[in-house]
Write a structure and sequence with these properties.
With 168 residues, this protein is an alpha+beta fold. The chain contains five helices and seven strands; from the N terminus they run E-E-H-E-E-H-H-H-E-E-E-H.
Length: 168
């Protein structure tokens, strides 16, 4: 920055090294997030305080048969999820907003072309500068194979218990 004042040249310098380092660190962090987000087999998503999607990773978009432009800004209801599922998710979101804490849960939902799927869900609060929850970010892992194996095992154990109880 330079300017003239009463025939004198005044020059001032601002050291932007620290700012440049912050910008570079942010760009590196965003690149890492994009790489994880794109490569993940888990659904990674976020919502604003009104329950509208603000992010949906590629695997979630692919599973729903939509691109992110069709998902971002929409609620579960606007995307056509079953009412029962919407109520369950709304309750999970409410708990995150009320407690301001991470919530872990198991849910199930019908997915296009796949039938009912089971998911482990982790919802994290996103806080504003005042510490208030301004949104939610989440990760859902498909645990359908494990859940179906657990159900089959319980049914098998119940059958064997019944056989043993009826045997002389």
């Amino acid at each position: 920055h330079a300017r003239f004042l009463s025939g004198m040249l005044i020059v001032s310098f601002n050291d932007i090294t620290e700012r440049q380092q912050v910008v570079e660190a942010l760009a590196e962090s965003e690149e890492k997030f994009r790489a994880i987000d794109s490569a993940s087999t888990d659904f990674i998503y976020s919502y604003d305080s009104e329950g509208r999607f603000t992010h949906a990773n590629p695997i979630l978009c692919s599973t729903l048969g939509m691109n992110d432009d069709q998902i971002i800004g929409k609620t579960h209801r606007e995307l056509g999820f079953p009412e029962e599922q919407i109520r369950e998710w709304d309750e999970l979101h409410r708990k995150v907003y009320e407690t301001g804490n991470t919530l872990r849960a198991e849910t199930s939902t019908p997915m296009p072309g796949e039938g009912e799927r089971f998911y482990e869900v982790v919802l994290n609060p996103l806080h504003n500068a005042n510490g208030e929850v301004k949104g939610i970010t989440g990760v859902s892992r498909d645990v359908t194979e494990r859940k179906l194996a657990e159900i089959t095992l319980r049914e098998s154990e119940a059958r064997w218990r019944s056989y043993i109880e009826r045997s002389p």
